[in-house]
Amino acid sequence: MDLKIRIRVAVISIFIGILVLGLKTGAYVLTDSVALLSDALETTVNIASSIAALVAIWFASKPADSNHPYGHDKAEYFAAVLVGVMIVLAAISIFRAAWIGFTQGDNPEFSSVGIGMNLLAAVINGAWARYLMHYGKNARSPALVADGKHLMTDVLSSIGVLVGVVLALLTGWHILDPALALLVGLTVLWSGWELVKESVGGLMDEAVSADVLEKIRIQISEHGEGALEAHDLRTRIAGRSTFVDFHLVVPGTMSVESAHEICDRIEEAITEGVPGAHVTIHVEPEYKAKHSGIVVV
């Protein structure tokens, strides 16, 4: 059911992107503003990112197989990197539009309808971006979170562009129009860099945050009764999955069955506290203790 909801959200994002693109394109046609053109160009990336998110969510949901025994969760990171590349391409297009505006562009024309259309597009994007980031975080979907963050960047740049275009029309400083387009391009480029940086961190098996790591350490300590210590705790994040592995030291005379019961208890506690956790525990006799890991209460 969760997969169906995530796919539905990604599909809705595509249709919202098309709607917003239509509104922004109409605003550009009515005003002939290079800044509003750059805003519309950025929206094409929103649509592309929503399509990439849809494909990634579908692929990442496929169960583990013989070629991918750890699952396909990292597919969402590849989608996020692809979106980052698309953002860079959009920024290049925006820079080109700004250059044309500086060298041979016409003065923008005032159109209350055009300004209103662009404002409506920003409101729609803002509401949907907040929903995407909230739902994507709860659903542990990097692709949806990335889509929402990029949309929010688009909202901020749209507001800035609207204010600037109105100022250019009121003051007669028409140079503000291509200057704003240039600023939008720089903002888009920065958001692309941030997105790629976060996604590469996931592809490089980045560890969980300090807060989550501390939660895991507490779960091991409080639910490992019968064991002596745990050491060499390692974590990595792969999309919706969190992989946890460590060595658990038990008395050398303890039976395999008793050690297994302790492992089950710890694993259950960790998976309950960290959704999507996959726990691997290596049991060792007490002479393997390092006296520097997690002390079991």
Helical/strand content category: alpha+beta
The helix-strand sequence is HHHHHHHEEHEE
- Stated plainly, the CATH topology of the largest domain is called Alpha-lytic protease prodomain-like
Looking at CATH, the homologous superfamily of the largest domain is: Cation efflux protein transmembrane domain
State Rg: 25 Å
pLDDT averaged residue by residue: 81
- Quaternary structure annotation: single chain
Distance between the termini: 39 Å
Task: Give the overall form.
Answer: elongated
Query: Would you count the extended β strands for me?
Result: 4
Measured by DSSP, the beta-strand proportion falls in 5-15%
Q: Would you spell out the secondary-structure blueprint of this structure?
A:
Layout: H1 2-31, H2 34-60, H3 75-104, H4 112-138, H5 142-171, H6 176-203, H7 210-223, E1 229-238, E2 241-250, H8 256-273, E3 277-285, E4 294-295
Structure in words:
The chain is of the alpha+beta class. It has two domains: 2-203, Cation efflux protein transmembrane domain (Alpha-lytic protease prodomain-like, Up-down Bundle); 210-295, Cation efflux protein, cytoplasmic domain (Alpha-Beta Plaits, 2-Layer Sandwich), CATH 3.30.70. The chain is 69% helix and 10% strand. It has a four-stranded mixed β-sheet, covered by helices on one side. Helix 8 links the parallel strand 2 (241-250) and strand 3 (277-285). Helix 2 (34-60) packs parallel to helix 6 (176-203) and helix 7 packs antiparallel against helix 8 (256-273). The longest helix has 30 residues, at 2-31. It is elongated, with a radius of gyration of 25 Å.
